Amino acid sequence: MLGRPSGGEASPRDDAIRLLARREHSRQELAERLAAKGHAPDGIAECLDDLAEQGLQSDARFAESFLRSRILRGQGPLKIRVELERRGLGREEIHHAFNEAEQAGEVDWFALAAAALSRRFTGPGDTPRERARRERFLAQRGFEFDQVRHALEHAWDDV
Fold first, then answer.
1. What value does the mean pLDDT of the chain take?
2. What is the CATH classification number for the domain harbouring 138?
3. Is 6 domain-assigned?
4. 82 against 124, higher pLDDT
5. Which of 35, 19, 31, 26 is nearest to 89 (CA)?
C-alpha cells in the first residue's frame, strides 16, 4: 500500500490522515482509534500535536461539523452536548460551537423541536397518554423542557 513505511506498518500519521479524509474527528476519537490500531501512546500524542499544529485536526472544526450534522437529524441541544462531551470536547469548545451556530442563525431550537414533532406525529394527541408519548419523543431527542412545551403548542400551526 502507498504511504506505508518499508516494514508494512502504517505510521500513526498515515492512519490519522486516512481517518480524517473521511470526516472530522475529535482529538480523543483519533487517539482512541490509533491506540486500537496498536500505535504507541507517545507516537499518538506527537502525531496529534503535529496534525493540530498543521490545521489538519481541529476540535473546534469537529464540534461545528458535528453540531450541524445533528441539527440536520433533528436532535436537541442536550443530546448534542452530551455526545460532544463523550467525544472529548471541553465545555468551552462546546459552548463556543453552540454560540457560533446560534449567532449565525443556523439553529432555532424551538422551531427544530416543533419540526421534529410534526414530522413524527400528525397531531398533538387526544389523550394524556398520547401527549406524554410526544413529550418523551422530544425529550429522548435531547430537547429542553421549554422547547418541548413550545413544540407541543406550535408543531401543527401551519397544518
1. 91
2. 1.10.10
3. no
4. 82
5. 26
103 secondary structure, DSSP code: H
What is the count of structural domains for the chain?
Answer: 3
Instruction: List the one residue out of 122, 120, 158 whose CA is nearest residue 137.
Output: 120
pLDDT over threshold 60, residue 143: yes
Residue 130 in grid coordinates: 398520547
Measured CA to CA, the distance from residue 77 to residue 143 in angstroms comes to: 6
Q: Any idea how long the chain is?
A: 159
Contact, 51 vs 68, CB < 8 A? no
70-119 residue pLDDT tens: 999 999 999 999 999 999 999 999 999 999 999 999 899 999 999 999 99
DSSP string, 30-82: HHHHHHHTT--HHHHHHHHHHHHHTTS--HHHHHHHHHHHHHHTT--HHHHHH
* 113, 147 Cβ separation under 8 angstroms: yes
In a domain? residue 7: no
Indicate the pTM of the whole model: 0.85
**Contact (Cβ atoms closer than 8 angstroms) between residue 27 and residue 88:** yes
